[in-house]
């Protein structure tokens, strides 16, 4: 039928996402995208817009895919907070170990490259990190941590989670990555066992 797209949008977006993830925004050319997606330049432009627009689609797709997995991991936080946070980290560790995807994290590398990217792309990466912090804070609040402690640990776990992705780019061993996770889990376990205390306000 005339005018009908002859390709699977999801497959194309996944191919473009992996290309951006592997090489980064700056080092991915339209020729690279054409080669990995199987679409010519005109098809890319007509279907997805310019390179920035396609990158945003890929970033959103990445955030939604792994965000759903993180949400599922944290869904039992009110009953089993340590198990939930351990499962949260496991999502990242399994992604790092997956041979079918690049090392690192598309959101983390976007945030690190933010000064060289458009304000819209930089803002979208920050929004994704904020969403991760918010989901952790909500889960830890449900685990009966005080609001202040829940927020502090959400900041910490978000940072650790991103550091795991960065470490994977430097070929850190699985044992090293799990040691980082274990130390964070030990601190959280201690906080959950401690009697609740009132939050001091300045």
Can you walk me through this structure?
The protein has helices spanning 9-23, 30-37, 41-48, 51-74, 81-97, 106-112, 119-142, 147-169, 174-193. Mean pLDDT is 92; it is low at 197-202. It has 202 residues and is mainly alpha-helical. The longest helix has 24 residues, at 51-74. The chain starts with 8 loop residues before the first helix and ends in a 9-residue tail after the last helix. The protein has nine helices and no strands. The protein is elongated. Helix 4 packs antiparallel against helix 5.
> DSSP helix count?
9
State the low-pLDDT regions, or none.
197-202
Cα-based radius of gyration, to the nearest Å? 19 Å
The structural class is: mainly alpha
Helical content stands at over 70%
Q: Helix and strand string, N-terminal first?
A: HHHHHHHHH
In what range is the share of β-strand residues? under 5%
For the secondary structure, the number of strands is 0
Largest sheet: none
Describe the SSE topology:
Blueprint: H1 9-23, H2 30-37, H3 41-48, H4 51-74, H5 81-97, H6 106-112, H7 119-142, H8 147-169, H9 174-193
Provide a concise account of the structure shown.
With 202 residues, this protein is mostly helical. It has helices at 9-23, 30-37, 41-48, 51-74, 81-97, 106-112, 119-142, 147-169, 174-193.
Throw out a few tags for this protein.
mainly alpha; single chain; 202 residues
